[in-house]
Design brief:
The complex is a heterodimer.
Chain A: E1 4-15, E2 18-30, E3 34-38, H1 45-52, E4 60-63, E5 66-69, E6 72-73, H2 79-88, E7 90-93, H3 97-100, H4 107-117, H5 123-136, H6 142-146, H7 155-167, E8 173-177, H8 185-202, E9 205-210, H9 213-219, E10 222-227, E11 230-236, H10 246-253
Parallel strand pairs in A: 3-9, 3-10, 7-8, 8-9
Antiparallel strand pairs in A: 1-2, 1-4, 1-5, 5-6, 10-11
Helix pairs in contact in A: 4-5, 4-7, 5-7, 7-8
Chain B: H1 12-44, H2 49-54, H3 60-69, H4 76-88, H5 102-137, H6 142-156, H7 159-173, H8 185-194, H9 202-208, H10 212-249, H11 252-259, H12 264-294, H13 296-301, H14 307-316, H15 320-348
Helix pairs in contact in B: 1-4, 1-15, 5-6, 5-10, 5-12, 6-10, 7-10, 9-10, 10-12, 11-12, 12-15, 14-15
Classes of the chains: A alpha/beta, B mainly alpha.
Chain lengths: ~280, ~350
């Protein structure tokens, strides 16, 4: 069953330096599965994710032949309809909790905001739900975290708070945009396994955006490789080692391997031809 | 899991109180520094305090007696300690012009300035913040252009010109507002004898006495100068609000709020505004302090018996005790406002606690 279907998505920015095309015709379908989008900085992977939520800031412009989410036409939806979808059915976890949490509101206020404003829950009920959500991301003393401010949390804690916040309304689609890139390596694995467990248990569709091809392959069912705003290769995660596209191979080879050669890592090969 | 990384954030008010204590000590040092500056000024200006006090044709005995009375025979450091001691007790000496204690005169003049600047700041905040937000949320739009143009005019038009034109149009031609002064002449006497003066601020005192007829008259007099000063303050506040707000709207936590499905109104006025308030508190406090000390021209044009005019008049007749007393009061107000804005800043920003 298709949850999200995107046809020929284009994102462009009309800047003073001319038209910048960040995404140039991306198409994909997503069921209740885990799709990875991989590429280097500027490949358009983040813009692809945010277009689905229609959260591209002006002067950015989203165009697509079609973009449907569970029967809803995302291109034709009004802003109010988009807000209802965003609040309840689609969510996004961003890269760095240091910036994605509001620094002057405490965690409790941010976690319960949706429940209070949108679902009109009482303060007590919202608080109980927030505590449940924090327990679901394995935070042991949720009471204390609720009254903390973001700067009082470590990166790993902050990202768990972020995941808890986004999963409170039980969305059908979660976009995780480099959710572990800003975290320490030791914490990365923890946060990933929490995310993995929740997505699996709740049967959500997941778009996992990362520059780390191996991580994505371990975590996802399918992988899109993007280069300069285009999908250059789409393949099942288990077939990653059989990747044919030279850019994908390049992404694989430019990471160090334990026990591998100690010589300089190969640079990433870029060819203007691939971007055509 | 790492749970121990939340520092004890209990009793933030207690922490703020402790910091307020430290701030107070700091301010006391600043205040003594201010006194040192005014003290030095009083000793280096080429105005002889003795001859200013008793006139140039005094006898040698009279001069010696006056020197003794002013403590001028003491060593300089003792003179300074005496000065600090007296200043801390609100004693700035007698005005040379009126032979009244300076502190009493300031107590009469300062409320007029306080009233005017406060109303002006309220006008500036109530219009400036929404205007800045409106401009920031629609950059490049017509409302943005208007806000920027009106703000630029506020920056660049001389206040005395605005004040004169304002008087000409709204008082002279249209007759919408009262003219110069704080009240009509007929009310001036009543103010003196029929109204208990609690604060020295006409609007507050007439309201406390239930004299709404006088309140209305006072309001018609204050509204024009307050609007003109409020316009200057609005120009500054709207411009800063616009730039702070644009900066905050570009932050990632704004995207988070939108992802949560929050309406734009809430994203701007709750999520972004709470962050904008942090630097804006300082901006508002500075513009308030600026009005408190710098409304000389406006006070002159509107015959407003305020502190700016008091100091200027004293300066023109070389009434040094009055000038220095006024300077110290202005400085003290400045220091006090700094402390208040510092406290508010800490309340607004948990990271600063």
């Amino acid at each position: 069953m298709t949850l999200l279907s995107v046809r020929n998505l284009r994102v462009s920015f009309d800047t003073e330096a001319g038209l910048v095309e960040a995404v140039r015709g991306v198409s994909f379908d997503l069921g209740r599965e885990r799709l990875g989008i991989v590429g280097e900085s500027g490949s358009g992977k983040t813009m692809t994710g945010r277009s689905v939520l229609r959260l591209i800031r002006p002067p950015g412009k989203i165009e697509a032949d079609a973009m449907h989410f569970d029967g809803a036409d995302l291109m034709a939806a009004s802003e109010a309809e988009m807000r209802a979808l965003r609040g309840r059915r689609m969510a996004m976890v961003m890269q760095d909790p240091k910036y994605s949490l509001n620094p002057v509101m405490n965690v409790g206020a941010q976690l319960t905001e949706g429940l209070r404003q949108r679902d009109r829950l009482s303060a007590g009920d919202a608080r109980r739900k927030a505590i449940d959500a924090l327990e679901a991301v394995q935070i042991r003393d949720p009471e204390r975290v609720l009254s903390a401010y973001p700067h009082e949390l470590s990166g790993g804690m902050g990202q768990r708070v972020m995941i808890a916040m986004m999963l409170i309304p039980s969305p059908d689609l979660l976009i995780a945009d480099e959710p572990t890139s800003a975290l320490d390596v030791t914490v990365q694995a923890e946060v990933l396994s929490i995310l993995d467990g929740l997505v699996r248990d709740r049967g959500m569709g997941l778009i996992f955006i990362s520059h780390d091809l191996r991580l994505v392959a371990r975590f996802c069912d399918r992988v899109l490789v993007m280069y300069k705003g285009r999908v250059v290769e789409e393949l099942a995660a288990r077939d990653l080692m059989q990747a044919r596209h030279p850019y994908t191979q390049g992404l694989l080879n430019c990471l160090p391997r334990i026990g591998g050669s100690r010589g300089p890592l190969p640079g990433l090969d870029r060819n203007a031809e691939w971007a055509r | 899991m790492e749970q121990s990384d939340i520092p004890g954030h209990q009793a933030p008010l207690l922490r703020i109180a402790r910091q307020a204590g430290a701030t107070t000590a700091q301010l006391l040092v600043t205040f003594i520094g201010l006194l040192a500056v005014t003290f030095i000024i009083s000793r280096v200006v080429p105005i002889d305090p003795v001859s200013a006090l008793i006139g140039e044709r005094a006898t040698a005995d009279q001069i010696a007696e006056a020197r003794l009375r002013l403590g001028l025979d003491e060593p300089l450091w003792r003179q300074f300690l005496l000065y600090v001691w007296q200043a801390l007790h609100g004693d700035f000496g007698l005005s040379i012009k009126t032979h009244q204690p300076v502190i009493q005169e300031i107590a009469r003049f300062f409320p007029a300035t306080l009233e005017l600047s406060t109303l002006a700041t309220i006008i500036g905040v109530l219009i400036g913040i929404p205007a800045g937000v409106l401009a920031a949320t629609r950059p490049g739009s017509l409302p943005d252009q208007i806000v920027r143009l009106v703000g630029l005019m506020g920056y660049s038009m001389p206040v005395f010109w605005l004040a004169l034109i304002g008087l000409l149009v709204f008082y002279g031609d249209l007759g919408w507002v009262g003219g110069p002064g704080r009240l009509d002449a007929s009310y001036d006497m009543m103010m003196e004898f029929e109204v208990t003066q609690y604060t020295g601020m006409v609007l507050v005192d007439t309201a406390l006495n239930g004299r709404w007829d006088m309140f209305a008259n006072a309001f018609s007099h204050i509204i024009l100068p307050a609007s003109i000063l409020g316009y200057l303050s609005m120009a500054y506040i709207s411009r800063m609000t616009r730039s702070f707000m644009m900066n905050e709207l570009g932050q990632e936590y704004i995207t988070t709020a939108r992802v949560k499905g929050m309406p734009e109104r809430r994203v701007i006025w709750v999520h972004a505004m709470k962050n904008v308030m942090v630097p804006l508190i300082t901006v508002i406090a500075l513009s308030y302090a600026f009005l408190l000390e710098g409304a000389v021209l406006t006070e002159t044009i509107f015959a407003w018996p305020g502190l700016g005019r008091y100091i200027t008049d004293a300066l023109l007749v070389a009434d040094m005790p009055a000038v220095l007393g006024g300077t110290v009061v202005v400085g003290a107000v400045y220091i006090g406002l700094n402390m208040v804005s510092d406290l508010l800043y800490r309340l607004a920003d948990p990271r600063a606690r």
